[in-house]
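User: If you would, consider this record:
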Amino acid sequence: MSYPYEEILSQFEPITLSEMDSVALLDRTDTKYVVNTAMLDTILKGLQSSYKILDINGLRYFNYESYYFDTPDLSLFTKHHNGISNRLKMRYRRYVQSDLNFFEIKFKNNKSRTIKKRVMTDTAGVNLCDKAKELIATRTNMNATDLQIAATINYARITLISKKMDERATIDLNLEVIRNGVTKHFPSLAIVEVKQAKFDYSSPINRLLKSMHIIPASLSKYCWAMTQCDSTLKANNFKSQQLYVSKILNQKQSN
């Protein structure tokens, strides 16, 4: 089965899922970039000498489904919008090709570090299972009964691992966001996320993107999905972010 960027991705040295476990980086710093997919050929070719690529049974391009949970009054979304530190995101993540499911809690602390806890589950979807409820009870001060599905995000991911084994980079593309029956597609949008134990701007991917005049951008896929599908939500503090993403999406048309 063919997939986008197959020829370019085939030029990367592969790394297996078990080998990648040593770079799990569940406690890390995240640096995000928003790019137009028209630039991905150049970006991927520029990274081939410095990164390996996750390869599972010959596949290097993987589909993900994410189901995000929030309170009825969207307290988790609101904390992010208001710039409050020590905030949470809670979601199921389904790895489509391997049919593996996890419930994850991401905690962003006041030192801009992301700490992730997760548990494998039998299913993923709009209802919280017992394992998810147990993780919520042990890792947060929230009650699982106060949570409900808020948004679904589907996308494809390319995962790169530094040959120094100290850094991961993911490229998410073909985003589809869904909330309250509204679905939006963003085929020209790619989100690059660099995950490091300690922020290092001199890493090959950071240096490459800087040379291409691509600057770090704060973009939460969850908050993006919410605001794109629901115009009733308060989004004043996301306005500059939305304008920046719109500019990126229009780059292909202007080239």
